User: Fold these one by one.
Assistant:
Number 1:
Amino acid sequence: MNPPKHILITGATGQVGSELQVLLRQNYPYTTAFCVGRTTLDLLQMEAIEAYLTQHRIAAIINCAAYTQVDKAETDAEQAYLANVVAVENLARVANNHQIPFLHFSTDFVFDGNKNTPYEPTDTANPLGVYARTKYEGEQKALQHYPNTIILRTAWVYSSFGHNFVKTMLRLFAERPQINVVYDQIGCPTYAADIAATALAIIHSPKAMQGGIHHFVSKGVASWYDFAMAINELSGSTCHIEPILTHQYPTPARRPPYSVLSTQTLQQEWDIQPPYWREALERCLKTMGSLKE
Ligand SMILES: NC(=O)c1ccc[n+]([C@@H]2O[C@H](COP(=O)([O-])OP(=O)(O)OC[C@H]3O[C@@H](n4cnc5c(N)ncnc54)[C@H](OP(=O)(O)O)[C@@H]3O)[C@@H](O)[C@H]2O)c1
C-alpha cells in the first residue's frame, strides 16, 4: 500500500490534532492534511463526510475529535454520546465504504483501574463514568462497522496546545504559594506530540489496514502528585505541593485509581518505542519556553 497523500484530521484544533498538524508540516512534505473542526465538517452528517472524502480524495482518516470534558459529561451525556459514539460510527462507516486506514483515539478510562499491573488491550473494559462509557461504546461501534479501524488508547495527555494538567500547574505555580495534588491515582503522562508521531507512523505504515486495539502511553508511571512535582522542578518553580487523597478532591466523575497501559503490542508488532514520561515532559516544557535553564 502506498503512503496516503491526503489525510483527513478531525478535531484538528485539539491537543493531538494540533500536534499532528505540526508534525505533518515538518516531516511529511508529500502528504496534504485536510484539517477540520466542527464548523468545517459536521461529523454527525454521514453524507457530508462521504462527500468530503470523495471531493478531497482522502486516503486515510485520523479522528482526534472527541468530547473530552470528563466531569461535564456527567450532566451532558447527550453531547458526549454524539461526539464519542455517533460521529465515530459515521467515520467508521465512511472509511469502510472507501476501504482506507482509519485511526481513532480512545482512553485508559475504559478500564476501572482495579488491576495493579499494566492493562493490555485485551483486558476487560469496565468504564466508570459517562465520558468513559461513551468512549468505550465508540470503540465498539468503530470496530463493528469497520474491523480495519485502528484504536489507539492513550492517557493523561498534555501539550503546548489546548487545556491540560501541565498548563494548569504552570498557571497555579505562578498564582499560588501552595497547591494540593492527588497522589493515589497512578497513570502514564503522555505528550500529545509523541501520540501524533505514533499515529502518523501507523497511518503511513504498510500495515495501516490491520485493525485492532493498541495502547500508546509514555514509559514509566506517575501519580498526579509525581507529575506535578516534576513540572515544578523542571520549570524552576518554588510552589509547595501537598499530596492529598482522591476523596479530599471530589469530582463529579469517578476516575480509575490505576490506569497504567501496557504498550507491548506496539513495541513488538510495530517497533514503536515510547519515551520515558519525564524525558517527554522536558521536551514539552522546552517547546513552551518553560524549561528551567
Ligand atoms: N486529553 C486526555 O487526557 C486524553 C486521555 C486519554 C485519551 N484521550 C483521547 O485522545 C483524543 C484526543 O484528545 P485531545 O486531548 O487532543 O482532545 P481535545 O484537546 O479536547 O480536542 C478535542 C477536539 O475535538 C473537537 N470536538 C469536540 N466535540 C466535537 C464534535 N461534536 N464535533 C466535532 N469536533 C468536536 C474539539 O473541537 P472544539 O475545540 O471546537 O470543541 C477539539 O478540536 C480523544 O479521542 C480523547 O478521548 C485524551
Number 2:
Amino acid sequence: MLWLRLVEGLGKVTIIVSAIVTENLGKTYRSSVWKSTVRSLDGLSLTVGENEVFGFLGRNGAGKTTTIKILCGLIRPTDGMARIHGEPVRKRAARQSIGYLPENPYFYEYLTPRETLDFYGRLHGLSRNERAAEWEKLSDLLDLRDIASQRVRGFSKGMRQRLGFAVALVGNPAVLILDEPMSGLDPLGRRAIRELILKMRDEKKTIFFSSHVLGDVEQVCDRVGILVKGKLMSQGRIAELLTEKIRLVEVIASGIDDGVVQELRAASEAYRASEAGHHFTVTDLASANASIKEIHAAGGTLVDFVPVKESLEDFFVRIQEGHS
Ligand SMILES: Nc1ncnc2c1ncn2[C@@H]1O[C@H](COP(=O)(O)OP(=O)(O)O)[C@@H](O)[C@H]1O
Ligand SMILES: [Mg+2]
C-alpha cells in the first residue's frame, strides 16, 4: 500500500509510516434545499512525509479547506480515505496527533489569551502544572506576554493568528495542519508565521499548510501540491516541478524586419523588445530551433539564447490556465 514504504537493509525491515496520506479522497456536498450537489474534491491522493513542510496551493474554492477539514476529522469524505501516522482520520489516535489552525480561528471573545490556552490545555487533559508550563513556552514563542490579560475581543487579525497558532500547539502535536495561516496578515505578520513554521520544522514536526499566495509557500516548503477545482494537478519538490515539466527558452534576435517579428511572435509564448533585440520565449527546443532557422533565413542575427527558469508563479498560473 502507498502509505507503507518498506525499507530493507541487511535483512532488517523497517516500516516507515508517512505522516499524512490520502488516497482517492473525494467530497461531494449536497444541498437539501436546492437538491444540488457540488463535487469539491475529486480523487485526491497525496503523501506527506515525517518532518516535512508541505504547501497546499490553490485558488479560492479549489477545495483546500475541505481537504483540511477531512484531515482533522471534522467532515467525512464521500469517498477515499485519509490517514495520519497510519491511523484513519476518524479515529481518536489520528486526531490526537494533530494541531489545527482554522482559516478563521474562533475564540471566546471575553477570555484572555492566557485563559484561552488554559481552556484548550484542559481539553487536552493537561494538569495545572502542565498548563502553566505550556503557557510559559507558548506565550514566549508567540509573543503573547504583553497581551496575556487582554480580552480577545479587541484583537487585531495578527494577534488572533498568533493566538490561534498557540492553540494549535497546545499538547505538542506532531502534525500541524494550518489553513491559510498567512492570509490577511501584513508583511511582518506573514514573516512571523513563516519563521514559526520553520521553527516547528526544526522541532521535527510535520507541517501541512494551505495558501493561495505563492511567495509564502515558495519560501518555506519542502514540497507543494497544487489543487485545481478539487483535483491535484501537481505534487513535488518545487525545484523538480519547475525544471522537469517545462523548459522555457528565450531566443534573442536582431536585424529582422517587422513581418518576421510578427511571424515569430505568433509562434512564441511571450515576446518583448529590448536594446539587445527581439526576445521570443518558446517552451521547447524544437520551437527554439525553428525560430533560429527563420531568423537566419531572414538575414537576422541570433544575439543570445537563454534557458529561462520558470518561477513558481508562472508554473502555478500555467497549471490553472491549462485546466480552466
Ligand atoms: N458546506 C458546504 N456546502 C456546500 N458547498 C461547499 C461547502 N463547503 C465548501 N463548499 C464548496 O466546495 C468548494 C471548495 O471549497 P473550499 O474547500 O472551502 O475551498 P478553498 O478552501 O480552497 O477556498 C467550493 O466550491 C465551495 O463553495
Ligand atoms: Mg479555504
